[in-house]
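PROTEIN DESIGN WORKSHEET
SECTION A - STRUCTURE
LENGTH: 298
TOKENS:
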């Protein structure tokens, strides 16, 4: 399967690692805008050296309870970096739900729009369907970042996440977006309880049944911290490396095509081990088929 994007057709027969580049004041800021830009660009280059296949640039924090960012501020953060990042030779994704940001980055040649609101903002569908080929990641979110964890979803979330994503994809396709441009994401942590997030991992097959590739983002999320806290691990997001890598590998093993991560180097290494094991499984299946063929031939 391929993911069609603006400039690249991304081969999803092996798992892809999307490296997170946050351009929020708390991530790179050391004063002036120019310094912030070169620090952010250095970070992009480092993620590529570490083995990232896709960069995901975001200018608005969507962590639970985060304050919204104005359109002007988001454009000021994201546009200069995207202008440079599209020269790095890999697909550039932009994490935004604002149609004006989508249009601005597509005009600069961005490859993918990663929308946590699944084109829910008025005008977003028009922007992406007006583009001939940009890739899309449509994510499920319950309520919005300010309130999602106060009243998380109720009960079995898998069927409702699936139905929501199916509808979002159908809506994009009926506006003219080709099926091959769309990837779906269950939105780990977006208005779900710890148990609900893990049920989305355990039952990823039900989401895959929609027939779209899946992208998942477990990296450093609090549900991981909730589990490792029972092992005495400190609660900070920085202590979630092993947990994040484990979740990424499990998601890939259960069929995810793309993992969105902070810790690219470690994830790439872990996925290489997963790949080596899978190759061995494949070659053993191949051997046993060849043996059976030989037996039937006589
Ligand atoms: C996700 C995202 C995710 C997609 C964020 C964080 C919060 N985009 N943007 N999927 N999470 N597609 O990274 O902790 O899970 S922001």
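SECTION B - SEQUENCE
RESIDUE ASSIGNMENT:
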């Amino acid at each position: 399967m391929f993911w069609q994007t603006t400039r690249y057709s991304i081969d999803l027969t092996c798992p892809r690692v999307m490296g997170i580049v946050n351009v929020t004041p708390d991530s790179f800021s050391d004063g002036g805008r120019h310094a912030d830009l070169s620090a952010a660009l250095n970070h992009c280059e480092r993620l590529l050296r570490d083995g990232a296949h896709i960069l995901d640039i975001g200018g608005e924090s969507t962590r639970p309870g985060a304050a919204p960012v104005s359109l002007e501020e988001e454009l000021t953060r994201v546009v200069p970096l995207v202008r440079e990042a599209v020269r790095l030779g890999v697909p550039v994704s932009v994490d935004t739900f604002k149609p004006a940001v989508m249009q601005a980055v597509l005009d600069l040649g961005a490859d993918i729009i990663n929308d946590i609101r699944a084109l829910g903002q008025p005008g977003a569908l028009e922007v992406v369907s007006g583009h001939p080929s940009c890739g899309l990641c449509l994510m499920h979110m319950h309520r919005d970042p300010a309130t999602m964890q106060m009243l998380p979803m109720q009960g079995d979330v898998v069927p409702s996440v699936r139905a929501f994503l199916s509808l979002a994809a159908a809506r994009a396709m009926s506006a003219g977006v080709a099926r091959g441009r769309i990837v779906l994401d269950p939105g780990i942590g977006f208005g779900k309880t710890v148990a609900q997030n893990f049920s989305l991992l355990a039952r990823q097959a039900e989401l895959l049944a929609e027939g779209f590739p899946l992208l998942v983002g477990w990296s450093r999320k609090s549900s991981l911290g909730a589990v490792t806290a029972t092992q005495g691990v400190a609660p900070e997001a920085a202590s979630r490396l092993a947990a994040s890598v484990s979740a990424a590998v499990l998601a890939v093993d259960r069929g995810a095509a793309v993992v969105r991560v902070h810790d690219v180097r470690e994830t790439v290494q872990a996925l290489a081990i997963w790949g080596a094991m899978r190759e061995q499984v494949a070659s053993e299946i191949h051997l046993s088929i060849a043996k059976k063929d030989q037996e039937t031939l006589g």
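SECTION C - NOTES
The first helix runs from residue 25 to 28.
The chain has a mean pLDDT of 94.
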